[in-house]
Amino acid sequence: MSRIRRTGVRAALFTVPLVVAGVLGAAVPAGATPHPGRSLTCRGEGVDPEALVRSRTETVIQAPLSTLWRLQTDVERWPSWQAPVTTSERLDHGPFRKGSAFRWTTPIPPNPSTPATSLDITSTVKQLKRNSCIRWTGPATAEGLHIDGVHVWNFTEVKGGVLVRTEETHTGEQVEADVPTATRILREGLEGWLRELKETAEAPTGHQQS
Questions:
Q1: Cβ neighbours of residue 5 under 8 Å, at least 6 residues apart?
Q2: Angle made by CA atoms 91, 96, 99, in degrees to the nearest 5
Q3: What pLDDT, on the 0 to 100 scale, is given for residue 143?
Q4: Helical H runs in 38-178?
């Protein structure tokens, strides 16, 4: 699944309107644009077609495709370049592939309704094509919260870099209680993820991560 920004909760992973409304302040990465056209797919499978909460965005990153693929699939190193990801661990071994699973956590700040807590996300790769696309699904849970997410990533080499496109849907009682807010926060979260991916990949050290 997908997911907070430095100033709050990344809704690319989850959306909790009562918790995060007003605390997300992710900057839109250069070149990122909403793209409401046909849903993204990976090996013919896309996001949840019935989900009320959905968002899609994209950006061009001036870095080698191999760098972007390594950053995105080396999930255990996400905390090194995504500040909101506090822990991340693979639940299987070997190459990142269809069936790979990973468990990661991100904090939820305190709010008038609930104390500070941590969101626990377990993602499973359902489809994957190396250097081209990934689709994972999985639940995000915390006390009194359950959200199911589907997240698709596409990577396409273009003149000047790589076009990275991402789309995600969320379902669950909490997010469906306020679809406009949940959708806005999800969009901001996806834009934030792309911004950090772009900054990391385009930095001189980003090309050398192993």
A1: 24, 25, 26, 84, 188, 189, 192
A2: 60
A3: 82
A4: 65-73, 78-81, 173-176
Which residues make beta-bridge pairs with 157?
Answer: 162
Sheet holding 145-158, edge to edge: 33-34, 53-61, 161-171, 145-158, 133-142, 117-129, 101-108, 87-90
The alpha helices in the chain, defined as continuous H runs, are 17-20, 65-73, 78-81, 173-176, 179-202
**pLDDT on residue 44:** 97
Structure tokens at 105: 């956590």
pLDDT 10s digits, 93-106: 999 999 999 999 98
Dist CA 186 CA 4 (whole Å): 9
Q: How many residues in total does the chain contain?
A: 210
Q: What is the CA radius of gyration of the chain?
A: 16
pLDDT at 142: 87
- Residue 181 CA to residue 163 CA, distance in Å, equals 28
Q: Give which of 177, 108, 189 is closest to 141, Cα–Cα.
A: 108
Q: How far apart are CA 2 and CA 10, in angstroms?
A: 9
CA angle 57, 102, 175 (to 5 degrees): 50
Residue whose entry in the numeric block shows the structure tokens 């911004």: 195
For residue 76, give both structure tokens: 């255990």
**Amino acid (one-letter) located at 105:** T
Tokens of 10: 């990344």
